[in-house]
Amino acid sequence: MSGVIAGRYTAQTDEPFVVFLIGMRINSFRAVRQWLPTFRAMGPMLRTLNEHPEQGYLGGEFFLYWRGVALLQFWRSFEDLETFARDPQEPHLSAWRRFNQVTSKGNKVGVWHETYRVEAGASESVYANMPRFGLGAVMQHVPAVGNRETARRRMGGMDEPAVPTPSSSSTAL
């Protein structure tokens, strides 16, 4: 179990950040010429982002689902995300233009995205017996104890755990 960290952890940050979800949906599996270029466009974008963290990309996760792929991304700010998306020197703008040309000829492939601005102190997370993942991979990864033990406490409130936190290395949510 490479990379698994025993115990309960949470992500901690005192800064605002942006959560960006983006994906592609294959509407017709037979229309490979329409959806394959859209799928392939993701690689160069992610490579560029990972090679240039100064652009504000903090990191993310890749997911497969029944009809497509999705990316969960974390950004320093909406402005950084928008600057990358609109920059003619970056791979996104040309992929966006190509996608618009393809979709003007039919609806065989779709894309979607959702963007969320998260103010400092307005998020919570927990990772039990997990490798660093999601927000926990891009922010400070700290034990989920004391004022970080429950979701309400991580959101700044007070409560008692509904289920006692295990004291052993084998934990539960």
Summarize the structure.
The protein is an alpha+beta fold and 173 residues long. The chain has 2 domains: 5-13 and 119-154, no CATH class; 18-118, Alpha-Beta Plaits (2-Layer Sandwich).
Notes on the protein architecture:
By secondary structure, this protein is of the alpha+beta class. The protein has two domains: 5-13 and 119-154, no CATH class; 18-118, Alpha-Beta Plaits. Helix content is 28%, strand content 31%. It has a four-stranded antiparallel β-sheet with strand order 3-4-2-5. Strands 6-1-7 form a three-stranded antiparallel β-sheet. Strand 3 (57-65) and strand 4 (68-75) form a beta hairpin. The longest helix is centred in the middle third of the chain and has 13 residues, at 91-103.
List the helices and strands and how they pair.
Blueprint: E1 5-12, E2 17-26, H1 32-40, H2 42-51, E3 57-65, E4 68-75, H3 78-86, H4 91-103, E5 109-118, E6 127-130, H5 135-138, E7 140-143, H6 151-154
Antiparallel strand pairs: 1-6, 1-7, 2-4, 2-5, 3-4
